[in-house]
């Protein structure tokens, strides 16, 4: 937590320090640790990209960008470098009448000579400022993807750095801010959906994380449940009910009643066996909410369960789930 945050929030933080302290703390943290950081968002994003082995998130979901830091752009930087020692805090001239008159509240007679600063740097001026030279790049020949590859070429360092700079660039208006927030939400949702299919627990929802929940999922997925026969029995019951024969209609009602009875008995047996296994394997773990979690998963057919099953029916489970 940065010490400039709200005092009440700083008091509840585990670590409080400057930007350098935050960076060193994350670098020294062990792999797999989770961190919620309260400071400028761009720094949090850079730390998350630099340390993919750690779970780093921004503390506030309602992102509020630092307006002061976002004023540090290339036009202001060029204006500051080209006019050292002039004193004052006057902003670069944007061509407005108030700027040419010395700003609001300043008499026109005391105004400094107006300087026109372009709101955007041209590519030639930017290259000249940073002493960069440009060379014509040779055309790149298309290479057919090799079997088993990722289907796309590895980006060059220049392309990766350009992409990182584009992500770190602060938004210029509310429309762009909302667009970035929407993209972040979509990216998070995509990672969660992919993790639900692949079994990557780093992106699971909090309710699905931990060894206890993983064991519950494997225990339910490894046993055959009456729920798997639910749809076929319901289809048979509906066909018999539409036959018009009183005998078949009665048989349909009996099949439907027996199906629900078997499901209830199966859930009760599952509950007692699962609690016994959890008490044996995880004697020190709290078991609150495990029965509801197990029943909600067991009442779904196997191909509809999320996260996706990682074991087959009848497969023996590991003795350790740590």
Provide tags for this entry.
322 residues; mainly alpha; 12 helices; 2 strands
Task: Walk me through the structure.
- The protein is mostly helical and 322 residues long.
- Among the domains are: 7-58, no CATH class; 207-304.
- The protein has 12 helices and 2 strands.
- The protein has helices at residues 7-11, 19-28, 41-50, 74-82, 97-100, 123-129, 157-168, 174-198, 211-221, 230-241, 246-281, 290-298, and strands at 34-37, 55-58.
- It has a two-stranded parallel sheet.
- The chain starts with 6 loop residues before the first helix and ends in a 24-residue tail after the last helix.
User: What gross morphology would you assign?
Assistant: elongated
Q: Approximately how much helix is present in the residues?
A: 40-55%
Mean pLDDT: 78
Give the helix tally. 12
The largest pleated sheet is described as:
2 strands, parallel
How many strands in all? 2
Q: What distance lies between the first and last C-alpha atoms, to the nearest angstrom?
A: 30 Å
The assigned structural class equals mainly alpha
In the sheet with the most strands, the strands line up as: 1-2
Radius of gyration: 31 Å
**Unreliable residue stretches:** 94-120
Share of β-strand residues:
under 5%
Order of helices and strands: HHEHEHHHHHHHHH
């Amino acid at each position: 937590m940065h010490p400039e945050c709200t005092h009440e929030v700083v008091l509840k933080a585990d670590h409080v320090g400057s930007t350098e302290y935050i960076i060193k703390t994350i670098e020294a943290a062990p792999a797999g640790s989770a961190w919620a950081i309260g400071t400028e968002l761009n720094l949090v994003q850079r730390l998350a990209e630099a340390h993919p082995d750690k779970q780093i998130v921004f503390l506030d979901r309602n992102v509020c960008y630092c307006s002061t830091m976002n004023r540090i752009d290339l036009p202001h930087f060029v204006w500051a470098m080209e006019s050292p020692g002039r004193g004052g805090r006057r902003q670069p001239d944007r061509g407005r009448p108030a700027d040419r008159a010395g700003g609001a509240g300043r008499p026109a007679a005391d105004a400094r000579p107006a300087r026109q600063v372009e709101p955007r740097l041209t590519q030639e001026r930017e290259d000249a400022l940073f002493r960069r030279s440009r060379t014509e790049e040779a055309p790149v020949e298309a290479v057919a993807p090799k079997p088993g590859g990722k289907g796309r070429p590895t980006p060059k360092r220049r392309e990766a750095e350009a992409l990182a700079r584009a992500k770190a660039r602060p938004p210029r208006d509310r429309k762009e801010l909302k667009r970035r927030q929407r993209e972040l939400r979509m990216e998070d949702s995509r990672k969660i959906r992919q993790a639900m299919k692949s079994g990557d627990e780093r992106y699971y929802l909090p309710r699905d994380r931990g060894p206890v929940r993983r064991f519950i999922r494997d225990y339910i997925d490894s046993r055959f449940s009456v729920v798997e026969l639910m749809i076929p029995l319901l289809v048979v019951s509906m066909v018999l009910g539409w036959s018009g024969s009183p005998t078949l209609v009665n048989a349909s009602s009996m099949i439907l009643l027996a199906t629900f009875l078997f499901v209830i008995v199966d859930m009760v047996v599952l509950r007692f066996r699962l609690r016994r296994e959890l008490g044996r394997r995880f004697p020190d773990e709290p078991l609150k909410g495990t029965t509801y979690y197990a029943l909600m998963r067991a009442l779904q057919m196997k191909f509809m369960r999320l996260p996706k099953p990682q074991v087959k029916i009848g497969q023996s489970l590991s003795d350790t789930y740590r």
